[in-house]
Structures are given as C-alpha cells and as structure tokens.
Amino acid sequence: MTRLAEKYLRPSQIPTKACHGCGIGMIENWILQAIDELAIDKQDIVFGTGIGCVGRQTFATWGGDNFGGTHGRALAIATGLKLAQPDKKYIVVVGDGDAASIGTSHLIHAARRNLGVTVVCEDNMVYGSTGGQFSPTTPSNSITNSSPYGMTEPNFDPCDIVKAAGATFVAETSVVQWHQTIKVLKLALQNDGFSFVHVRFPCNENFGSYALGSRDTKKSLEWIWENTKGQKANGEPSGHKWETGIKHDASNSRPEFSKLMRGLAERVGKETRQRELAV
Amino acid sequence: MNETLAASHRLVAPWVDWAARIKQGKWLLETGTYALTEGAIAAGCRFFGGYPITPATEIAENISKRLPMVGGYYVQAEDELAGMHMCAGASLGGLKAMTATSGPGFTLMHDAYGWAITNEIPMVVVDAMRVGPISGITGAPGQGEFYVARYCTHGGNFETIVLSPNSVQEIYWMAIDAFNLAERFRTVVTILTDQVVADMQEDLFLPDDPAALASVVVPRRNNLAMPFFPVGSSEIDVAPNIVGRGTGVCVSTYTHTPEGYDIEDMDAQWAQTERLINKIRHNKAELLRYEAIGLEDANVIAVAYGAPSRTVKTAVLEARRRGVRAGFLRLITLWPFPDQLFERDASYLVCELNYDGQLVREVMRAAPDKNKVHFMGKSAELHTVAEVCAGLEGIAQAGRMPPQPHIWTEVR
Amino acid sequence: MAATLFRDEKIQPAPGKAGKWAVLLDEDMCKACSFCLAICPVDVFAWRTSTNKIGWVPIRVAHEENCIGCMHCFQICPDFCIDVVPKAPRP
Fold first, then answer.
1. Range of the domain at B59
2. Is the model more confident about C18 or about B271?
3. Do B160 and B280 touch, CB atoms closer than 8 A?
4. C83 contacts in A (CB within 8 Å)?
5. DSSP per residue, B131-151
6. CB contact (8 A) between residue A222 and residue C81
7. Do B57 and B154 belong to one domain?
C-alpha cells in the first residue's frame, strides 16, 4: 500500500470493500493528503461516518479513533463528541443518502450551530449500497433501480441547504478535480466551524448500470468528467454542468459551537462559585 | 402497618444503605423532575441532549440551568433521535450523559438505543410515560412502554436494564443508581417513570456533602487499551471506551471484533451476543431491586410498579386490616425481569396503567400457575384503594374480581 | 480541461523528463479498475496475466522508465496501490 495509507490507515481494512471503479477510495486518498500537508497528527483526528457505501467502505479504514453512526445520525453523534472532546478535528464522511436524505435535519442543525466539523459529502447520486435507487441528488429523469420510468422527483444540491443553514465553509468538486479537492479540504479543515465539502463521484456498478447503461468503470468516470466540464468529448453540451468551486467562505468568522457552550459553562460556573462563596 | 406486617416489609435497593449513611443535607418540598435532575448532577452527569416533551420538559428546564453551573452542557436537540445520539457521542467522548422524554420521543430513540447498546456506551434514559397511544391524554399517566423499554431496539441479541421509581426521594437515589449501573455494565440504563412521579411534590432530602456522595457514585474511567470489546466475556466493571485519546477504537452499527471493526462471521456474532446478553444475565444479582410486604403468608399478591404502586400498597394494608392475607410486591427493577420474586404459589393481582396487559404477561410467564394471575388494567388515572381492595377481596374469597367500571381484566 | 479524461493513445515522454521516477504499484491491492492505465499520458502500465491475492487480474508497471512524474495515476487510484517517488539520484 502507499506511504500515506501506511501512515494513516488501518492495514487490516485495506483493500477496502469498495467496488472496483468506485470513487470513494480516491477521495480518501485526497483527504489523507490534505491531512498530511497540514501536518495534523493522526491522534488529533476523529473520523466519523454513516451507513451506505460511503459509510461502509470508509469505516475502520482510518487508523485512529473512528465511528460509524446509525443512518443519517453521524452529525448528531459528532455534536456530542465535539463537546466532550472539543480539541480534536472531526472529519465526517457521509454519502448523499446519509447526509442529504435521512440525515438532512442533523446536517442543517449542525450547520446552524456552526459545529466545528468537516463534512465530506461524497455524492454518487444514488443509493449505491442497496442496489442503485435514486437519491435527492440524482440527476433529473435518470433511470435507476427505483425510477424505472426516469426519476420524476426534483433534486437539490446539499450545498445550498447547508449554506442557507449557516455553514461557514462550503465547496464542491468532483473526482476529476483532485488538486481542487485537496485544496478545499485543507481550507475546510482550517475553518473552526462547520465546513461542507461536496464531492461528486461515480458509482459504475449501480448508477452506471441503470442510468448510463454500462458498468464500465471508465464510462462512469468519463461521465463525471463531462458533467464537471459541462461538455462531452465531441464538444456538445453534456446533460449537466455541476457548479464546482468554493461556494461560500466565511471561515472562522462565527463562533464555533463547542466554544460557545464552553464559554457559557465557564461564565455560569464562575458566577455560581462566586455566589456560593458569598453565602 | 401492624408489627408483624412491618417485620415482613422488605426494600431491596442500594439506596437503603445510602440513605442510612448520608445524613448531611437539606430538606425540600420538590417534584420528581427536580429530584431526578439533582440526582443526575450528583452522579456526575455533565451532558444532556434532548427535546422537551410533557411530562419530562421540567427535566430539560432544570438541567439547562444546572449543567452550566457544574461545567456541563445542555444541548436542545432538533429531535429526540438526535438528542440520544448526541448523548451517545458525548459519553463516547468521556462525559456522563442523559436524556429524558416521554412515549412519543422514546419511540424515536430506538436506533440510538441500538448504537449505544451494541457499542457498550454508558448513559441514562428517562421515559416519563403517559397514556397512549401517541399523545393520548397529554397530562395523564400511563405504563405503556413496559415491553418497549425491554425491546428498546431492533435486531434482538441484547438484554437491557430498566428501573422504575415510585417517589420523589426514590427517583433522586435512582438517578445515581442508574448512572452507576450504566458505568458498571457499560450500557444504557432506562428509568421508566410516569407523569405522576415526575410532577408530584414530596419531601426530598438532598445530600450536600460531596465526600459522602463521592462514596456512592461510580466514577467514569477510560479504557485505553485493547480489547475495546471483550466479546465472549460477561465481565462487568470494565472501563468504558473513549474516543479522542488516540486509542484507535472503532465504534459502529455492525457486528464487531474486539477492536470494533465490522466482521461478518458466525463466531463474531456469537461472541458479541454472549457479551451483550450475559453481562446482564450472569450478573442479575447486582440488579435486583424491589419492595415487598407480607409475601411469606400471602394468598393474593398485588403486583405493581411506579405511581400505581402507591395506592396499591395502601390497598394491600387495608385488605390485611379486613382479614385478607394480601401481599404487596413492587418491582423496582423491571428488566431483567425478576422471575425469582414469583416463586410463591399464590394468586397475583397485577395492577398496571394500560389496558392491553404488559407486566401481567410477564407475571403469567413467571408465576407457578398463570390461571391464578389476574389483571387490573386502568388508564389515565391511578387505581383507587377501593378498587384494588375490592379486587383483592374478590380473588381471596371467590377466586375472581368483581367487575368495576374502567377496569380491564382480560388478557388474551 | 482537455476533451477527454483518458488517453488511449500514449505519447512519448518529452526528452529529459522520463527516467527519474520510481512507480511502486502494490499488485495485490489492485482491483483492476484500469484508471491508471487509461489516464497515464505515456506508456507505463500494462495488464498482468495472473490473478492477484484478492481475486482480480491486476495492473503492473511495465515501463517505469517512461514515467514523467505527472502523478495522475497516484491521484486517480482508488485503492492505495500506487506511489510515484523520485528515484534516488545515482552517485
């Protein structure tokens, strides 16, 4: 395995359970580079995840302390953990299902509270683990396992949600933008507040087979490439053009949640002690 | 109570000893919710994550004031699901944590219960029950979560600890006891109470000697080495795991190895289950808590827990005065169910605040003759002394209860 | 951005660029996604013919001497298989 994997990962869990061609491992490689370039110690990072491909394929790969929460609740767990262990960096890696569907409430409130975590929403635009049902981020009209006539529901971009809720750093990239992803991950990790990095990646096995008509790994990655650029290889516009880049950067401009809570505890604790002494 | 009866009165609980030893403190007239809050703080609780709901709201109100005073955190979660998950996270990070709710919120905690139980995370959950289903009559007591508290999460393969108080003083001590058991057994301890005990006002003795309290509180310790999960072992008093100290611990939803990562084989499933079930079953002696009067010679034993047990107890004493050889059995530990308390071949009259019959089914299972187990179900109002007395007399004299309005007797 | 992500036609490395890099590929971690082979602009990788320990027929390094150190393979590999490091300078 690579030098970075040896430095940060848990050897017994590598190779991961991810399918061949899955983008999850790529993003994990970039997360490790961001951590390494910022020289953050493994002991100072807590890695959290949820359910689904992004959850299962990353859980326990991290060599330090890590948790895999119930579906959608990784951020609720992280809220309690951050208050108990405020000086650690929290990287919460969750999929489109975990973050933008079942867990959206907690995503919104963690952003509202400006909880000091970096959420990496790895979005393959499908519920991969259960065989490829559509998700709230699936491109419109896509054929999937549970939208055999094409997806009728509208979709949304979780970046818009967290920005509206108060996130202090929001960025989006795709898996053909490794330098940009490492860069925004580093910025995200340096924000003492709620950071949201949305990375779109391919699911060749499930999304590919239903929506693209092929499980070929390269076809799925080329599809990501086209929609990141907005243009196919022949120059025609692609189906979508995802808006990538830093969408909102108010890093370190608002008090982080655990700091607010500690401030309260310190102030009230002091007042209480003074009152007790005065009696 | 006459002398003979008084001699047969038994209260088995650690706080009998605590109350005898701890004499320094003050007397207040306070509510169950107030007492619970103070007990939690005394036990070292430093995190509350929850959502307001009648009749548990006052716990949130009180603890939101008390926790910052002691350097702790009150987080008002977006819902009960988040609240209990936050408690799990906080406890995993080293803080003693608690949440409090009622039926509609308790229902949302299923997933979080599973996560905490499977990962052996200590915490306390308070369910102040009210009549149901769902909102029911908002201000009225119920006992509809007896089984839900035992089957607090999905998937089977676990045991759990559930306690129930019946007075303001008792809920204070029980809070400390619950936190202690949570630490010792590395699990969630549920305090199943009701709207009456939560809201009523009674004398409360509040210890204020820190040294005396320290002698009864089990402190939080941190496990810093493998095995993080001693699968296969039923040992208790194992220190809880902690995230954030660089131990490399893995905590998840899956069947796991001693290191905590997921594994899909039968040996691992067996070993994990052995731990989760046997750490409680093999240590039942540490968990037995109950109150009893007159069991030694009783022909008919009234069984109850929580608020109804107050009037049931009075009814038993009244029945004795009228010549009925009645006995009183108040369960304090509901789960693991104390089968050993039902060995006597007598009639049982189970009084509970539901019409579908929950506790009565366990008594039918545990007692020597299920045909001699009678059900007095009521909803939204406590059983009256007269009702229970009539029931006891009827069973003692004719083997059955007289019909009474709003009393459900059928168990199918 | 170029028109396509992958280059089926490999180019010759520019003079002076190649030959300075060690391409370390852990063949037993490879899941044969073929991204490295397809994204490499020059001709470094090829398919092995035998199965590896995890049941895939993996990629192997065929022409390390062509590597120009672009790092695309390192960045695109989803399975922590590839490290590209400067070769130790000759004494």
1. 13-214
2. B271
3. yes
4. 2-3
5. SSSTT-STTSB----HHHHHT
6. no
7. yes
